[in-house]
């Protein structure tokens, strides 16, 4: 049924991840995903992130709805303000 649809080109980010996984250097650093890891390869979570998560969960009025593409209107207005001042 979908055989007529051509295969999309590989996402460049996934290609970088594949190259990272294939690299055997013990000094390699994965900067693609934006995730930090310990020396043991375990995910590292900054304490400030833990605090922010607790603050977000504590707000009962928050829901799990998806944000619009522009994000929170408050953040969007701050972005516009800061970008126009430069």
Protein model, in words:
With 86 residues, this protein is mainly alpha-helical. The chain has one domain. The chain contains 3 helices and no strands. It has helices spanning 12-22, 47-58, 73-85. The longest helix has 13 residues, at 73-85. The termini are far apart. The mean pLDDT is 79.
Radius of gyration: 20 Å
Number of helices: 3
N-to-C CA distance:
53 Å
Biggest sheet: strands, sense, closure? none
Q: Per the principal axes of the C-alpha atoms, what is the gross shape?
A: flat
The H-and-E topology, N to C, reads as HHH
**Helicity, as a percent range:** 40-55%
Q: How many domains, as an integer?
A: 1
Low-confidence stretches: none
Overall strand count? 0
Q: What is the average of the pLDDT values?
A: 79
Look at the helices and sheets and give the structural class: mainly alpha
| Beta-strand residue fraction | under 5%
List the helices and strands and how they pair.
Layout: H1 12-22, H2 47-58, H3 73-85
Keywords for this entry:
86 residues, 3 helices, flat
Quick structural overview:
By secondary structure, the protein is an all-alpha fold. It has helices spanning 12-22, 47-58, 73-85. It has one domain (14-85).
């Amino acid at each position: 049924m979908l055989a007529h649809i051509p295969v999309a080109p590989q996402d460049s980010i996934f290609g970088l991840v594949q190259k990272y996984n294939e690299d055997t250097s013990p000094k390699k650093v994965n900067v693609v995903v934006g995730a930090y890891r310990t020396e043991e390869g375990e995910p590292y979570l900054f304490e400030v992130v833990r605090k922010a998560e607790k603050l977000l969960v504590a707000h009962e009025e928050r829901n799990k709805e998806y944000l619009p593409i522009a994000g929170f209107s408050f953040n969007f207005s701050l972005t516009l303000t800061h970008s126009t001042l430069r």
